[in-house]
Amino acid sequence: MTELDPVIHAQARLRVVASLSALPDSDQVTFPRLQEILGMTAGNLSVHLRRLEEAGYVAVTKTHRGRTPVTLIALTRRGRLAFEEYTEAIRALLASADAKETS
Amino acid sequence: MIADDDLPPEDPAAALRLIDEQRATAARQFEPDPRAYYWPWGLAWLIGFGLHFLYYSPGDTPLVEMPSWLPLTVLFVLLAAAGAVSAVAGARAYGQVTGESARRGAWYGWSWGLGFLTLFVLAGRLSDSLPPDLVGLLWSALAVGLTGILHMAGGAIWLDRPLFLLGVWITVVNLLGTIAGPGWHALIVAVAGGGGMLLAGLLGWLRRRGRR
Question: Alpha helices, DSSP H only, in A1-103?
Fold first, then answer.
C-alpha cells in the first residue's frame, strides 16, 4: 500500500479517529466516555491520543467541571481532513483492486 | 516495541470495515436509544388520554366508572415518569459530550420548560370561566399542540426527519381532535398520538439496528 497516512494507518488510532469523526463538528467527548466506546485501557488510549495530538489531528483540552478535572477530546479540522483523505485513499485502493480482478 | 493494535489493518477491505463499524458504534453511543426516548411518552399518552376518554366521554355519562381524580393523576404521573426516563437516556448519551450540541440540547430544553410554563399560566387563568369539558380540552389541546410544534422545531434543529414528521403528525392529530371536540380529542390523541410515538420509537430503533 502506498502513501497511506502512517498516523491513522494503525488499527487502534484508526478506531480512535473513526469514533471521534462520529461526533458533530464542534463537540468534544470526555476521556472516560471515549475509553468506554473504544474498550481500550486508559494507558493505551493515552499513548495513541498523544501520537494523534502530536500530528495535530486531535485536540485534548484539560478543564474543570465544578472541582473535578475533566479531559475533553475532539478531532481537529486537520484531523477530520486527514481521516477523510485516508478513507478516500482506502476506497480508491479497493476500487482499483476490483478493477484489476474484473479486467 | 510495537503493540498489536499499532499494526496497520490487514488490507483496504479490513480498514474500511473497521471504519464503518467503529463509526456506527460511536454514533449509537452518542445518541439516546429511540425506545427509551419515545416509548415512555407513547405509553403515557395511550394510557393517560385513554383513561381520560373513558371518564370524560363524549356522552353525558362516563363509559367506565372511576374516581374523578384518577384520569388526570395517572396522566401526570405517567408523564413525569416518561420525562425521567428520557432525561436519563439523554444524559447517558449526551452527558459526556460538550460543545455546540450540548448547548442546542440545553436551549431546546429551556424552550420546553418555558413553553409549558406559559401554557399552565394561560390555561390556569382561563379555566375558571369555562365549563369542565372545555377546560379539559383547553389543557390537553394546548399541551399536545405545544408538544407537536416543539417536535417539529427539534426536527429542524437536528435535521432529523422522523422527529419533524412526528411533530407534524401530532399537530394534525391534535387539530382533528380539537375540531371533533371534548372526549373525542382524548381518544384521538391516545390512539393516534400515543401510537405515533410508539411507532416512531420502533422505527428509530430498527433504523439504528440496521446501521450496525
Answer: 11-21, 31-38, 42-54, 77-102
ipTM (interface pTM): 0.85
Query: How does pLDDT run across B13-70, given as a tens digit for each residue?
Result: 889 999 999 998 888 888 888 898 899 999 999 999 999 999 888 877 888 888 888 8
Q: Can you tell me the distance from the alpha carbon of B155 to that of B199, in angstroms, rounded to the nearest whole number?
A: 17
- Interface-testing mutation among A1, A5, A27, A75, with chain B (most B C-beta atoms within 10 A): A27
Closest CA–CA distance from residue B85 to any residue of chain A (Å): 21
Are A85 and A5 contacting, i.e. CB atoms less than 8 angstroms apart? yes
- Sorted by where each begins, the domain ranges of chain A are 11-97
Report how far residue A5's alpha carbon sits from residue B50's, in angstroms, rounded to the nearest whole number. 60
A11-97 topology per CATH: Arc Repressor Mutant, subunit A (1.10.10)
DSSP assignment of B60-128: SS-SS---TTHHHHHHHHHHHHHHHHHHHHHHHHHTTEEEHHHHHHHHHHHHHHHHHHHHHHHHHHHHT
